[in-house]
Design a protein that fits this description.
single chain, alpha/beta, three-stranded parallel β-sheet, 4 helices, 13% strand
C-alpha cells in the first residue's frame, strides 16, 4: 500500500483564497507550466490554488501541460475529472494512463 505524507506539508495547509501568490511575479519568466492531478485532490486550499495557477497561466498565454497522475487513495477519477475538465481547454498537453482512458 502506498502512503502519502502530504497531509501536513506547507502547501496542503494553505487556506483557499486569492492573494497568497503574486502571480505576476511567479510567472514573470515562465513560458510553460506543468501541473499534476495530484494537487487538486489534496484538499480545498490546494485545489483552489491549483485552479488559480492554471487560470492565471492561461490568462498570460503560458503553455500548460497536465499529467493527471490519478491516485485512488486521494479521490476518485470522477472527482478529479470534475475538477480538471474546465481547464482542459487551456492545456496544450494532457498525459493520461491507459487505465484512465479505458
Amino acid at each position: 500500500r502506498v502512503h502519502y505524507h502530504r497531509a501536513h506539508s506547507v502547501f496542503c495547509t494553505l487556506p483557499a483564497g486569492a492573494g497568497i501568490f503574486d502571480w505576476q511575479e511567479v510567472f514573470e519568466f515562465v513560458g510553460w507550466v506543468h501541473s499534476t492531478g495530484i494537487t487538486p485532490l489534496l484538499g480545498p486550499g490546494p485545489c483552489f490554488h491549483w485552479k488559480e495557477h492554471l487560470t492565471q497561466a492561461a490568462a498570460r498565454k503560458i503553455r500548460i501541460s497536465l499529467d493527471l497522475n490519478h491516485r485512488p487513495a486521494l479521490g476518485t477519477l470522477e472527482k478529479l475529472y470534475e475538477i480538471v475538465e474546465p481547464h482542459l481547454k487551456d492545456c496544450e498537453v494532457v498525459i493520461l494512463s491507459v487505465v484512465q482512458v479505458a
